[in-house]
């Protein structure tokens, strides 16, 4: 039973780290798109 609890705990921590990393990647992509669209609107 203890091994199962430890396994689930490790999986939960790993999933949180993965989701956080994906969120950061999506945020970075959004910032790049915003910058490009602002440059296009400014005629650069």
In short:
The protein is mainly α.
Walkthrough of the structure:
The structure is a single chain. The protein has 44 residues and is mostly helical. It has one helix and no strands. The mean pLDDT is 82.
The helix/strand order is: H
In quaternary terms, these chains amount to: single chain
Number of strands: 0
The average pLDDT score comes to 82
Radius of gyration: 19 Å
**CA(first)-CA(last) distance:** 62 Å
Uncertain runs: none
Structural class: mainly alpha
Largest sheet data: none
Tag the structure with descriptive keywords.
44 residues, mainly alpha
Lay out the secondary structure.
Layout: H1 2-42
